[in-house]
Design goal:
By secondary structure, the protein is of the alpha/beta class. The chain contains 22 helices and 18 strands. Helix 3 packs across helix 16 (about 400-410) and helix 14 (about 350-360) crosses helix 21 (about 500-505). It is globular and about 70 Å long. The protein starts with a helix and ends with a helix.
Length: about 525
Amino acid sequence: MPTVTEAIVEKLAGRGVHHIFGVPGGDCNLDFIAAAEAAGLTFVLTRTETAAVIMASVSAELTGGIGVAMTTRGPGIAAAANGVAYASLDRAPVLVIADGYETAQGFISHQRLDQVALMRPLTKRAARLSSSTALRQVDDCLQTMLSVPQGPAYLEVAGSTIRGAASEADAGPAPIAPPPANPAAIARARAMLAAARRPIVIAGLQARHQGVPEALRAFIDQTSCPLLYTYKAKGVVSDDHPQVLGPYIGGVAEEDAVRRADLAILVGFDPVEGPPQPWRYSLPLLEITEHRFDRPLFDAQVSVVASLPTALRAIASRATGTDWDADEIASMKNGLRAAARVAKGEGISPQDVVTEVQAAMPDDCRITVDAGAHMLPVMHLWKTRSPNGALISRGLSTMAFALPAAIAAHLADPATPTVAFTGDGGLMMCTGELATAAQFGCKPIVVVFNDSSLTLIGAKQRRRQLTTAGVNFSSTDFAQVARGFGWSGYRVTETRDLRATIGRAIEAGGPALIDVVVDPHEYQDQIVSLRG
């Protein structure tokens, strides 16, 4: 009979897991590492626990399966909390495993936290593995993680449980069936679409799920609707498609397009991506979603809760054309992109960085994007042509995302080139992961928008007419830092050197970092132009 540890690892391998990410301690973590290596899984030793959970989350997002992260007790699981929050709010099915104490060790206070209580608000399920129902608890966690909305689960383990023999009576989780479409809701949705002459589609993070991108493209082709997308849904339909306008961020840039419409069709829109403000439009809303929400951002006139491909096909089955004109859609698309191309100042402009990198990279390049002012030019100007071609933290909007995400992307899909766009603040929070990339043969190109500032926070400070304080960094040469980790490192201070430096980074053939010194004032007009 296999041990419980071996049986758990076998279950994970059967779910398509190839990597376990984490920072181990000296107890049960070692059992899992040994079992994983014996089963052909790779344990990826990360430098921080939160990066491990982000990597596991991105792995799940790209493969359509689950991700696995592992930490030690106490400081290990506490340090993982931000990564678990990412998995929760950005809807990633991740199993987080951590050491706990034996029941007989009740006298120990050292490194002792109520870890289940710590993880409970951040996960869909948090439990301590018990010997009598060990594998059944694992099955319950996997089932819970994969049910909509997807999210993380936490398992706390002790040696007396996981080193015992696994029971043959424990069965795998039952398949998760999509919710059936309500015929009455479908009929009302068809009527709304038939009555509208200028409907617009806003696609959200659920649109990345299997089968949805194809159904969504067929829907807009049949109805001639223009499409906006949230950051998480960038690429579900190619930015090259003539009806794809660009990002929806709840800002002023896309307001013109939405106000021209007489119906908004929200496909897989999750409120976690909405701005922290009330819904700003009064036009009728048709919502198509996999599930309902605890904190809805709007009251839709009709809500269809069902498998998105099924619902889209059913609603469009009797649809006719709309009154949108191709020239009008093209004008709106150009206007949205123009909003991200504000007048340039003296230094290197962030939009020039994006343009030059895209020109040098192949069309199938994947990008990962950190939180910060640089995400505005990147997400609005970079052309993404496939689902999951742009990865970003939107529900949590955490910094220190882009580099760990790029590492996970390379491990999950090494054939696709990956560029990580990050600010200096985000990179400083996870610099050690440069070593993780080098150790495991990952070859991303990291582009650092180095303005020695928390620029987005500084803009909010100025808007409130507060004195500038607490948002500026001392100067850092990230190219030199990267070389210390075995990367190729380049520093750019003049626009004229940008293109050639990008070329050298690509030709290096390994992990490469381009430290671009940008003027923070370049962002100010862009923030106003896009967000308002």
